[in-house]
Structure formats: C-alpha cells, structure tokens
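Posting this for the archive.
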Amino acid sequence: MAPYRLDVISLAPQAFAPLLELGVIGRAFGAGIAELHLHNPRDHATDRYRKVDDLPYGGGAGMVLKPEPMFAAAESVPVLPRRRVLLMSPQGQPLRQVDLQRWSKQYDQLVFLCGHYEGFDERIRSLADEEVSLGDFVLTGGELPAMTIINGVVRLLPGTVGTSESLEEESHSDLLLEHSHYTRPANFRGIVVPEVLRSGDHGAVARWRQQQREQRTEERRPDLWDRWRKVQDSRLESL
C-alpha cells in the first residue's frame, strides 16, 4: 500500500523536522506508512529578494502574504486522486477528533497551507478545501496547527500504533472522554487501584470504564455530554 502523503507549504519548513523523530509518529514515517514533503513559497518567489509578503491595500499594521508564491508552491505539489487541502486559519472550523478520523480514512493526501505575518491575501483561500483552527486564539503562523493535525492523522493510520483497540475508547473518539488508567503498584502513597480492575472480571471492568467515561464527560465537558446524550436519545427513538 502506498504511503499516506503529507505536503506542507510553509515559510518555516525546518519547524517540521522533529516530527520525523517523534516516537511512534517518527517510526511511522521511517516505516513508510506516511511521507512528509515540505515546500517553501520563498522558493517560488520571482524577484531577486525572494519576497513573499507586501503591505496591505488600504493600509494597516503588518505585512500580508502574497498570492503568487503561495499559488506557485501549491501548484507544484503532485495531486493524488483522494486529496484534501487544509488552510490553517484562526477563522477556520475548530479541529475535532472526527476530522482527524475523516482525513485519515477518506483521503490519501493532505496539503497544508500555513500562513504567516499579519495574514494572507484573501485569494489564497481559494486554494483550500477546508479552513481549520485549533481554537479561539492566534499564533504567529500555521506551522503548529499543521503539526498537530499531522500527528493526529498519522497516529490513526494502520500500522502506526501497536493495537487498533487502543484507539477505540480514547477521549473524543465517540464524544466521551477516556476512562482513567492504572498500573503497578496497586497501592501508591495510599492511593489504591480500584478493586474492579484487579478482579479479573472483564465484563465488570468494561462497565466500570464506561461509567467512568460518562461521569468524566459530564463533569469536565458538559458540552460534549449534552451532544452525547442527544445521540443516545436519537438512537433509542430509532429502535
């Protein structure tokens, strides 16, 4: 099977080097599960100074990323049949686990457009299929959001983690947060591992973990809890 292709268009391609050495993600790249290709818009600038930004029309503070180098860099990227172009932007839709799952399953290539400076020329938006944000805050560039998505997608690819079961009950996989985990020793500074986890009763363990997931979600993320309850109610109504 061909490796999952990741193309990043960024003025700071060196920022992505640690991904190639980062635990299971780095091993996935080393094993050929995924490939990372970096493209610097500055390499596509046409003037002697390799200029990629300019003053904004209408005035204002800061510099704006020019469209020509970004378009040229994007158009230099090979196009796979199943690909998605993502623009990293604080105006985008908030990143969710279901997005990572969708991109890892429905596509074989992701292209990341990373902005910089004060912003980017509005025409650059036309290159993207989706705009994605990590949250309601602003960073100096799109590199950290892109690295976050790359990490989240690659870890979901077959062969990256040892067992696929470890991905099934983790936080946000089905709107619920993950249950608590314990390992040896059974008693550490007076904090004892719950008896049910040491009982050997797999059914009881599964029920306890599900209760933990529901309780944690209700307490810590009432927004997710409300969404999960609505999903459960709709399932019951369809029976």
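The chain is about 30% helix and 20% strand. The first strand starts at residue 4 and ends at 9.
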